[in-house]
Every structure is written in structure tokens, then in C-alpha cells.
Amino acid sequence: MSEPLVADPGAARDGGPDRKAVEVAVGVLVRDDGAFLLTSRPEGKAYAGYWEFPGGKLEAGETVEQALRRELQEEIGITIGAVTPWKVELVDYPHALVRLHFCKVFEWSGELQMREAQSCAWEQLPVAVQPVLPGTVPVLDWFAQERKHSGATHFVAAYAGS
Ligand SMILES: Nc1nc2c([nH]c(=O)n2[C@H]2C[C@H](O)[C@@H](COP(=O)(O)OP(=O)(O)OP(=O)(O)O)O2)c(=O)[nH]1
């Protein structure tokens, strides 16, 4: 079996017998002008308010592509066209070990509807929204490499404590 790409953040590991990775399908929607869609995580979920690419966990028996079609329909109300697998990343969060299957999507139909009361933003580098979910930051680096973007990919809020 080939090893997934392990990226920062994370002392990501395969977790041992009690810590099995949760498979997650993630959609990187890219518009003709190169802008990509970020959504904020809804209230009630881990990391609520953090920005990420839309997607969610695979259900039993689903492929990544099937899960992505279902999640993007359920969460943002669109029907996606072709799905292009891009990168796989294993991230070790306190709440879960997740294997993120990032896929690019260039074609979809339907109007965006935030069905879980999320916010959404079409972004270019550096992205203006913050905070960005830790497991989402590497995607911005991959975009930066592809687009030969130098400098920051996103902003991190300054520590406000004394
Ligand atoms: N959708 C998405 N999830 C990400 C990204 N980066 C990242 O680390 N994750 C993590 C956060 C979560 O631990 C996991 C996704 O699980 P989730 O809770 O959002 O999935 P879901 O919509 O199926 O949730 P639920 O049905 O359990 O409420 O993947 C990303 O860019 N997009």
C-alpha cells in the first residue's frame, strides 16, 4: 500500500490499532479566473468558524468521488462535474486522525447555497479570510507552488493576550 503524503501540521502517524484514520473527501472548486472557494465551518462542529474547502467524511461503501458529490450537494447545493484527484494528506488532530482527499473541480451547476449557515468566499492568494483550518493550509502552499506565488499564503491573527 502506498503511503499518503504527510504534511505539516501534524506529527501525523498511522495511529495504531485504536486510532484509525477517518477518510474525508474535499472539493477544491476553481473558477475560470483562478479563484477558489473557501467555506467556514458551521457552529457545533470541531473548529467552528475556521475556513476550509467544502467536503466531509466518506459514508460506508462510498468512494471519494461519490462522497464529494453528496457532500457538495448537501452542504452548498451544487452538482459537480468531473472530479480530478489532486493530493492526499494525513492530519492528526486532537479530535480525530483524518485522511484528506483533495480533489479539484472545475465544473459545476446550480447556485451556491450555504445550507449549513456557513459563510463562503472566492479567494486568491494570499487569502483574506481567517483563521484557516490547519489541515487546509498545505493546500494554499500547493497553490502557491503551482502559481509561482511568493510571500504569505494567508494571515494569522496576532496574539491579543498580555
Ligand atoms: N471539509 C474539509 N475538512 C477538512 C479540511 N481540512 C481539514 O483538516 N479537514 C478536517 C476537519 C474535520 O476533522 C474533517 C472533516 O470532517 P467534517 O466533520 O467536516 O465532516 P462532515 O461534514 O462529514 O461532518 P459530520 O457529518 O460528522 O458533522 O476533516 C478541509 O479543507 N475541508
Automatic annotation (TrEMBL):
Organism: Rhodoferax saidenbachensis
Matches recorded under InterPro entries: MutT-like (IPR047127), Nudix_hydrolase (IPR020476), NUDIX_hydrolase-like_dom_sf (IPR015797), NUDIX_hydrolase_CS (IPR020084), NUDIX_hydrolase_dom (IPR000086)
Protein's name in the database: 8-oxo-dGTP diphosphatase
Domain Nudix hydrolase per the UniProt entry, residue ranges: 21-145
Cofactor requirement: Mg(2+)
Catalytic activity: 8-oxo-GTP + H2O = 8-oxo-GMP + diphosphate + H(+); 8-oxo-dGTP + H2O = 8-oxo-dGMP + diphosphate + H(+)
Keyword hit for Magnesium: yes
Pfam families: NUDIX (PF00293)
Keyword Cytoplasm carried by entry: no
Enzyme Commission designation: 3.6.1.55
Family classification: Belongs to the Nudix hydrolase family.
GO biological process, one term: DNA repair
UniProt entry keywords in alphabetical sequence: DNA damage, DNA repair, DNA replication, Hydrolase, Magnesium, Metal-binding, Mutator protein
GO molecular function terms attached to this record: 8-oxo-7,8-dihydrodeoxyguanosine triphosphate pyrophosphatase activity; 8-oxo-7,8-dihydroguanosine triphosphate pyrophosphatase activity; 8-oxo-dGDP phosphatase activity; 8-oxo-GDP phosphatase activity; metal ion binding
Catalytic class of the enzyme: hydrolase
